[in-house]
Amino acid sequence: MPKPAPKSPRPAYRCAECGWETGKWVGRCGECQAWGSVAEAAAPTLRTAAAPVTTKAVPIGEVSVSESAFRTSGVPELDRVLGGGLVPGAAILLAGEPGVGKSTLLLEVAAQTARTRHRTLYVTGEESASQVRLRADRTGGVHDELYLAAETDLGAVLTHIEEVRPTLLVVDSVQTIGASGIEGVPGGVTQVKEVAAALIRVAKTRNITTVMVGHVTKDGSIAGPRVLEHLVDVVLHFEGDRNSRFRMVRAMKNRFGPIDEVGCFDLSSDGINAVTDPTGLFVENHHAQVPGTCVAVTMEGRRPLLAEVQALVTVSALERPRRTTSGLDGSRMAMVMAVLQQHCGIRFHNQDVFASTVGGAKLSEPAVDLAMAVALASASQGTVPPRGVVAMGEIGLAGELRRVRDLPQRLAEAARLGFQVAVVPAQPGSRSPAWAAQRQESRMVDDMRVIEVPDVDTALRLLKLTDGRQRPLRDVSDG
Length: 479
What we know:
Blueprint: E1 13-15, E2 21-22, E3 38-40, H1 76-82, E4 91-96, H2 102-115, E5 120-124, H3 129-139, E6 146-150, H4 154-164, E7 168-172, H5 189-206, E8 209-214, H6 227-231, E9 234-240, E10 246-254, E11 262-268, E12 271-274, E13 293-300, E14 303-315, E15 323-326, H7 330-343, E16 351-357, H8 369-381, E17 389-391, E18 394-395, E19 401-402, H9 407-416, E20 421-425, H10 433-438, E21 441-445, E22 448-453, H11 456-462
Parallel strand pairs: 4-8, 4-9, 5-6, 5-7, 7-8, 15-16, 17-20, 20-22
Antiparallel strand pairs: 1-2, 1-3, 9-10, 10-11, 11-12, 13-14, 14-16, 18-19, 21-22
Helix pairs in contact: 7-8
Domain RecA family profile: 67-216
GO molecular function, one term: damaged DNA binding
Protein name: DNA repair protein RadA
């Protein structure tokens, strides 16, 4: 009896994003939910044999670090985020929304690098060379050591690199460059991987600092395959509001420095300028004390920033009162309102509540809870908080105040700007809770009085925003 013919193996399909495998083609990956990333996997090949090495392995102590020393980019705020400056051979990915100022920032970096007699090549795939020249004339970025090329083909870009031999390479953007002989259109998964891999390979072999601009999706994540972020050494996000000139560069990945640093910039028609002290942008100078305001100290990376929280509470004519926030977390404000109503006796059930920040600042840190509570209580009661007070602390559901990180840095920044009093959470273990409930512990920090309070009710009574006679909601039904 003849043996049945062996069945041919079923073709396997693999996701280019996460490596998930399936027996049939699907349009969406079942693991990472990426669209269009599943393709037929190549047949397994033989084991790779040993091959000659490019460089001999040496003890790590004998490896020279002089070739990888930091070099300033000419933009101090960007150097702060990068951990000291540009590293030869580093691959940097800068992503951000359209119109936020990525090209303007990188043109300024290229011009500053050219002024230090380091040859720079700026490759643009989104604009013509004349358009980039117009921007350079406006921002003062024309220099003999700055070379400009408008190319969309990877082979042509590599030829420009061979001819110019730059120290800094800027590619704007990686999604517009296409590689001939590779399937897909420019910006696709396969094309972006090939283009990025080729540019990074050249950067490592020739010690060229390479900065690539990346597009973002509608949810703010970097467009293209996730492997792109793994290939590069540094991932930067350029953030900003269209209604404000203030911009921030935030490090999401950095092999040469910290990832909790931010750089602040001011984008104008004359170019982009570094903002070394951005606190004044987020604090309003009132001619007279007004209710519903409080200053918070938030941390952007390692940098403390003072921002003013404003609240407006009015009687509502609607069956369901409105709750509107701008620059603040709406769910966080709802929680703070519930705590104020439950533990401080401040009613919001028939009032419209509006809360916002000054200058377009976006505050999502829990340390802003106490400043938000002070602003809401002040607006609801119509009382004015004392002048020169900052408040910081996370509020728990039981009304307690929890510690915040980097408290000494926050207090030092508030004292530098002239604030006289800071209300902060009580440090656990310093005194018993019963003692802290009756008396507030205070100390002096840089000529500023720091008052430690255990809960939000004590903080509001200390600032004379409540008189303590409001009965908590849980006691309303009693008697």
